[in-house]
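Lab notebook, bench 4. Continuing the backlog of folding jobs that were queued last week. Each job is logged with the same field layout so the records can be merged later without manual cleanup. Today's entry covers Putative non-specific serine/threonine protein kinase, a 337-residue chain. Filled in by technician R.K.

JOB TYPE: sequence-to-structure
TARGET: Putative non-specific serine/threonine protein kinase
LENGTH: 337
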Amino acid sequence: MNCFDLRLDHNNFTGGLPNISPMAAIIDLSYNSFSGSIPHSWMNLKELGVLDLWSNGLSGELPSYFSNLKQLQTMNLGENEFNGTITILISPNFQVVILRENKFEGSIPPQLFNLSYLFHLDLAHMKLSGSLPHNVYNLTHMVTFHVDLYYPTTFNLFTKGQDYMYQVNPDRRTIDLSANSLFGELPLELFQLVQVQTLNLSHNNLTGTIPLLIGDMKLMESLDFSNNKFFGTQLQSFNASSYIGNPKLCGAPLNNCTMKEENPRTATPSTKNEDDDSIKESLNLGMGVGFAAGFWGICGSLFLIRKWRHACFRFFDRVGDNLYITLMVKLNSFRRN
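JOB STATUS: finished
OUTPUT FIELD FOLLOWS
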């Protein structure tokens, strides 16, 4: 295909990815059904600045020649089946990197946090492991923000039970590393990115305390540290949903908890709750047995003994007659007055 700007998104194209002119600067094939791997011929796309392959059925490892695409600014490969590790395919001009919902594994390359122009990093819902890089975070646009040109990217995003259209915007600096297997403590360098507005580290195995430096991130609008293993206290500017799933994280907006852990070998078992539960169970059992005995004692006797049954019916008939007579007498007396 010979074109500078190739946009064939939101179609039903199938099969392998096509060969494309080396002059192409924008390739948007998102929301199709392409399959297979990225062609080797794409290594000649030296002018490529935008690559959007979101929501296809592409697979395989990322080509090593990606590291030679120096003009690449936006790379959206989300919602595919790419696998392997995220190798050093880093363009120095990256502004947007979206790899979410693939099958990548291994650690996060430290080079990703050394991109001066990056303002949107999304590596969510994959199989990444290891700790967060502790190198110097040279994400200039997340410290002193300034972006001149960028390619608008929009995709469907499901988060916190809601499905909505998400538009990548340089006015909303984002880091999303959620739903992986990351572990270890949070690097202090992360909290020097004071321009970040969305930070999602939920559903990992991160530990340690939440550094007080997070208070310097004054522009933060969306924070999600839920479902990790943090302990201590947290920033109170966000609601409980930002922190749930961390049993040892205490203080507002969460409920208080006890930080002191007992040795299970020497801990004295508490019998107070057990005694209370035992009393409640005995009381409920006694009430149930009493009700059943009373009910079947009366109804069963009436059912089995004919004399008792007839006597019961006569009794209720007399009571009904007396009530009727009393009611009519009172009513006639009221009318005469």
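OBSERVATION: Residues 258-274 have pLDDT under 50 and may be disordered.
SIGNED: R.K.
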